[in-house]
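Q: Predict the bound structure with glutamic acid.
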Amino acid sequence: MTVTATMRGRFAPSPTGEMHLGNAWAALLAWLQVRAAGGTMVLRMEDLDPDRSRSRYAELLQEDLHWLGLDWDEGPATGGEYGPYFQSERTALYQMAFDRLTAADLVYPCFCTRAELAAAAPHGSDRETPYPGTCRNRPGLPPNRRPAARLRVPAGIVAFTDQLQGEHSQDVAAEIGDFVLRRADGTFAYQLAVVVDDAQMRITHVLRGDDLLVSTPRQLLLYRLLGWEPPVFTHVPLLLGEDGHRLSKRHGDVSIRSLRQRGVRPETIVGSLATAAGLLKAFRPLPASELIARFDLAKVKKQPVIITGESWRRLLNG
Ligand code: GLU
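A: Predicted complex:
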């Protein structure tokens, strides 16, 4: 008999603004994957960035999730075995992982200024430029300012199989370069924090928007260097407006709160998102709980999902 460990999934929003349709889409699909498997859902607030995170947004996010009919078993107010569930309260855990990497001689201080980094980027390039390794072997005395800390990225390809997107690989050293683990202001970087959190919270399945696909090889590298088992990854396509651009304010106010204030029902939002995802053949309003039995990753679209005029009208007219 094989014993299958219970699936543990999470939704990890950054409380830097109001929850919008794009967040609701990722939250709904992450929640469905876990609930359909009878697993445990974790809510984690990624409030690492002290300049942009607000506790008010964390409260609103939780309210909006409840309103949409999405619940969780462990999280900020609920608690749980692997808390705290705010990244801002988990610094000691990030420090431990950082110290282990430092002890293995995988971390070095970086004194580059923003201006130096910008100067290293080719003109007109809108792609992320790999860090040229300026500080890897910086000779002489370091400048008199607080350094960031970068990972000494080993050469080699990082490959993995995404549950939706299939095979994916990246040469992290060549395409990204030595990336930041801790900012000069002492804040740990998302890439390190998310790995520490998902590992410590025993997350087995990560489902998130495919804007983060580009981060996954960096995270897998950290799992490897820290000797931890990585979760299974699923990157779902982003929601786009009819003009083919990522859904944003320019398409109208897409915050859940404003839709709610206009009298839109949660069932309408859930039904629209489920139809867009490919989980419903034809739109009908329905509560999130009724989708659990219908969830099938094989049905979920791999291509960017366009919110059509028709679904907009439905959302805006309630
Ligand atoms: N906090 C990230 C965001 O809101 C998500 C991180 C993740 O799911 O790994 O974009």
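A: The longest strand covers residues 157-162.
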